[in-house]
Specification:
two-stranded antiparallel ribbon, 3-stranded antiparallel beta sheet, alpha+beta, extended, Nucleotidyltransferase, domain 5, 188 residues
């Protein structure tokens, strides 16, 4: 899901003007992050809608291999093939990751082309997870973000359904035919 970090927003505290002739109050500037940033790694099975997420403090090869090992334990052992769609990141094609693929013959890594994130079905699911876990909330620590993502993933898995790209949303009404549509009339 990319780097997620707790950060402050302007408007926390009003700074009083130092001189009596000042015209307006100014906000204190805060550019820093409050805690260590981290990364959310995720695996997604579009056929069932099941998702698996875990958080790491860095995006390293060791973390990637550890995550793949956790996903191996999460996936049903009866599955014959596992297709892992991965972006062209150096930690995804590192030697240790390729050795993992050799040790687990049912895994096949598919690297998506550059600038083609729309081909990976986990990308729209990340948007759903962000809206469930992060939207409209403020976090002061990385532990709070990890907990929010864990709760959102658990909620998703409790209400999972097959994930199909381009499916009409359930709450939207179906479009009506326009004026140019042919009416349902039979001519004799």
């Amino acid at each position: 899901m990319g780097p997620q970090a707790s950060k402050s927003y302007p408007g926390q505290r009003v700074v009083r003007p130092a001189a009596p002739g000042a015209e307006r109050a100014r906000q204190e500037i805060d550019y820093g992050r409050r805690d260590v940033a981290g990364y959310i790694f995720g695996a997604f099975c579009p056929a069932t809608g099941a998702a698996f997420t875990t958080a790491y403090e860095g995006r390293t090869t060791a973390n990637r291999v550890d995550f793949l090992g956790q996903v191996e334990g999460w996936i049903d052992p009866a599955a014959e093939r596992v297709y892992a769609v991965m972006v062209n990141l150096n930690t995804h094609s590192a030697t240790d990751v390729l050795l993992f693929a050799l040790a687990h013959p049912r895994w096949e890594f598919v690297f998506q082309p550059k600038y083609a994130a729309y081909l990976n079905l986990i990308e729209p699911w990340w948007k759903v997870l962000r809206s469930l876990a992060l939207k409209g909330r403020r976090f002061d620590a990385w532990a709070e973000i990890k907990h929010a993502v864990e709760r959102a993933a658990a909620y998703w898995n409790a209400h999972k359904h097959p994930f199909v790209r381009g499916r009409r949303r359930r709450h939207r009404t179906q479009r009506r035919l326009g004026i140019a549509a042919v009416p349902n009339v039979t001519f004799i």
